[in-house]
């Protein structure tokens, strides 16, 4: 290991941490408005496919497109990718997401699930982001 | 005299072609092996990047053009074996960006940066390339949230890949077929 290596690795770690700090602040804020109504925006190829309200009750949402089939499952105030026939199955590893701002992505099928809160449109939270 | 020079020239070219072919085959096998490992569970999209061992080794012994051939061959073969065409675009952008960065560092940093540092930056560049492709497709920059954890993990895997490359390079340098390609430092 040479000095140049250490500098390079240092730069990468610092850059990563610089990304992390605003993310933490952001998460603390969204913790406060956890009670707000959260809904999931499902889009395919960058176009809106469906909006789903996040509920406690279980509901299955099949997303069938030209690319393939993804099945999302809403339950207990969150959503998860339940099943998919994509080749890499990365989307299944996103797990169960509950907070506004969380995402699930299936790259091969171009499916994007974003959690948003109903009141989020006018809040300071989004003003900071945009 | 010129004819003998020409002869060694073609034999060098032949050796090069064989090396690229073997490296691509090994890279594909490593890629398949990796797809069988459940490494995805830590962070979505995280990968060990075992195939990068061969790209880096190729960059060390051969010219940038040859390593580029390897990258294209590897990505094409992997797509045919494992993926779909739309997945090809993502992995190709990642592989291309990673290659350009590693090649640049190899050129600039000879003597200052070892294979370890190049491996780390190459891995991170791969993530950035893929996420950029995802951002273009999904038209949302939210996906970049996954970059910081991927970067931190990329440092760890990059160090291990770099160590592996050092061992591979050291033992390949002893083989006679690689003798004409060992760079002088």
Please state the oligomeric state of the protein chains shown.
Answer: heterodimer
- For the record, the CATH class of chain B is Mainly Alpha
Number of domains of chain B: 1
Which outline of chain A best applies? globular
CATH architecture descriptor name of chain B: Orthogonal Bundle
Amount of helix of chain A = 25-40%
Low-pLDDT sequence parts of chain B: none
From the spread of the alpha carbons, the general shape of chain B counts as globular
Beta fraction of chain A: 35-45%
Distance between the termini of chain B: 29 Å
Q: What order do the SSEs of chain B take from the amino end to the carboxyl end, as H and E?
A: HHHHHH
Key features of this structure:
heterodimer; A: 130 residues; alpha+beta; mini-chromosome maintenance (MCM) complex, domain 2; four-stranded antiparallel sheet; 8 strands; 28% helix; disordered C terminus; B: 185 residues; mainly alpha; Arp2/3 complex 21 kDa subunit ARPC3; 6 helices
Q: Could you outline the blueprint of secondary structure elements for this entry?
A:
The complex is a heterodimer of chains A (130) and B (185).
Chain A (H helix, E strand, L loop, with lengths): L2 H30 L5 E7 L2 E7 L5 E6 L4 E7 L2 E7 L11 E2 L5 E4 L4 E7 L6 H6 L1
Antiparallel strand pairs in A: 1-2, 1-8, 3-4, 4-5, 5-6, 7-8
Chain B lengths: L1 H35 L15 H10 L2 H19 L2 H24 L6 H24 L8 H26 L13
Helix pairs in contact in B: 1-2, 1-3, 2-3, 2-4, 2-5, 2-6, 3-4, 4-5, 5-6
Summarize the structure.
The complex is a heterodimer of chains A (130) and B (185). Chain A has 130 residues and is of the alpha+beta class.
Tell me what you see in this structure.
The complex is a heterodimer of chains A (130) and B (185). Chain A has helices at residues 3-32, 124-129; strands at residues 38-44, 47-53, 59-64, 69-75, 78-84, 96-97, 103-106, 111-117. Chain A has 130 residues and is of the alpha+beta class. Chain A has two domains: 1-32; 37-129, N-utilization substance G protein NusG, insert domain (mini-chromosome maintenance (MCM) complex, domain 2, Sandwich), CATH 2.60.320.10. Chain A has a four-stranded antiparallel β-sheet, with no helix packed on it. In chain A, a hairpin with a 2-residue loop joins β1 and β2 (47-53). The longest helix of chain A is centred in the first third of the chain and has 30 residues, at 3-32. The N and C termini of chain A lie far apart (41 Å). Chain B is mainly α and 185 residues long. Chain B has one domain (2-179): Orthogonal Bundle (Arp2/3 complex 21 kDa subunit ARPC3), CATH 1.10.1760. Chain B contains six helices and no strands. The radius of gyration of chain B is 17 Å and the shape is globular. The chains are: A alpha+beta (130), B mainly alpha (185). The interface between A and B is large, with 35 and 36 residues.
